[in-house]
Every structure is written in C-alpha cells, then in structure tokens.
Amino acid sequence: MKKFYLLLLIVLSLINCDKKKGDTNVTTSKTNEPGHDKGLTLKESVARAEGTWISEPYLAAIEKNKAIYNNPAYPTTLFGFSIVKDSIADGEDYLYGFSTHDAGYMWPVQYDSAKKRISYNIKVEDSDNMPPSPFYLNPLTATTLEIVFTKSTKREVYRKADLEYELNRILFEGTYIDKATNKTVTFTKDGKVTGLEGKTMYQVQYDPEGEYAVPFDAVFLFTLPDDEAGTPYHYTISGNTLTLYNVNEKEIEKYVTYNYAKGTKAYTLTKT
C-alpha cells in the first residue's frame, strides 16, 4: 500500500501526456466574452496563459456527476498543460502538455507580435512534439482559455486549476454533519480534514484506471504524521450526502499487487 501511495504522489506531481481514447474533434467553446479572440500584448498574453490548465470538459463532467471513475475519457487533445511565466517572458518557450499517466509533449510556442497572441512556433522542428495542427492560445476568462487549432474547427477549452485542489473543491470541500455521531466534519480544498476519528488529511484518487489504483471512486484518509500509506475509502455523493465505505484490500504480491472490493458503510455525512 505504501508503494501505491508513493506512486500516486509522483504521478500527481508530474501529470504529463499520453494518447487517450475519446473524440478529439469535439468543439468545446463558443463565447462572446470580452477579450475573446482579441489581441493582447506580450505581457498581457503571458499573464493570461501562465500556470496549469486542465481539460474543461473533464472537470465539468466531474462537477455534474460528482464522480471520477465512470466519466468518459477527456475529449481534448491534452488532459492539461502548463506554461511557465518566467520562461516565456521573452516571448518563446514551450507548452508542456500532460495526461493522467506519464510524460508527454513539449509544444514550442512564441508570442506572435503581428497577431498579438501566443501561437505554435513553427520554426522549431521536433517530430516527437508535433501538435495535431498549428494553434494559438485564446484567453476566454480569467480562468479559462482555449487552444484553437488553425487547420481544423477544433477549439478546446481548458480551466486554470491545480488538479488536486480543484478535485477537492468539486467533490469534498465543505462542512458536514456525521449522521452517526452528530459531530461536525470539515474538508478543506488544501486536503485537510477534521472531525473523522483523528483523520487529518485526505487525497482524492484522480486516476482510478492507473496500474496500481483502486478500481472505483476512492479517497485516501491519513492520520499524520505516522500514517504514510493512508486508508482508502470508496465514496458516493448524492445531493448533500457524502457516503464513505470501507475498502477491503487483499495483497496478491507483496507491496505490488492488490485486490480491492467495496466494503461496509463507514460514514454518512450531510453537507450543511
């Protein structure tokens, strides 16, 4: 179990890029927001584009379904990407694409002074890092932008977000009442929990299809500082009710392979 958790942390810190299933021809944005397809200065472009961006349809599906496991594969070309502010400040750098699993693309980008936007840098030839077509970044709002592919009709929307914090916000953040004890239980966006029998931290499993993952929606609860591995719980969310179930673990190969099964109900929490 410890090795699984360490791998989870490593993957969550890297989250970089592979090919995945899904229709990447989905047009994911239409907007009349101020600034849509408007030219920006280099400084403005960098300020709007820097940071980490996650597939908007992927996050929107989780918000709608309050679950990760049964959602379809993200329809965008990338699961997400990041742009480093200091690196692109002089007008050229890379868009660092990633997926849910492993290392991926570095698409060269530059500030196009003629069209006043950050675009694919076609002058940098790298056959291992070719996007589907040339593209440019089009900021929509302070927290959304789209990648516009110029040789197709694709306009893919991404949300500016720290993946771990955003999943915490969507699924768990808030104050609850424990049905069994009538005690107050609180989950914060930064992964802290209070009111659950000494549990102090939690982490949502964002990739239930990973090699060592629990094969259903799961959250790990930790009693720090001694609890390095955490305890997995299956979760369901229906309306204002968050239900946590025990997970039965059976070690098949020492520290490597486990069988997981949903167990008995552990907590029923009502959001206030």
Describe this structure in words.
This protein has 272 residues and is α+β, with helices and mostly antiparallel strands. It has two domains: 2-161, no CATH class; 164-271. 16% of the residues lie in helices and 37% in strands. The protein contains five helices and 16 strands. The protein has an eight-stranded antiparallel sheet with strand order 5-4-3-2-1-8-7-6. An eight-stranded antiparallel sheet has the order 11-10-9-16-15-14-13-12. A hairpin with a 4-residue loop joins strand 4 and strand 5 (117-120). The longest helix is centred in the N-terminal third of the chain and has 13 residues, at 2-14. The chain is elongated, with a radius of gyration of 21 Å. The two termini are 33 Å apart. The model is unreliable at 1-35 (pLDDT under 50).
Question: What's a concise summary of this model?
Answer:
With 272 residues, this protein is α+β, with helices and mostly antiparallel strands. It is 16% helix and 37% strand. It has an eight-stranded antiparallel sheet with strand order 5-4-3-2-1-8-7-6. An eight-stranded antiparallel sheet has the order 11-10-9-16-15-14-13-12.
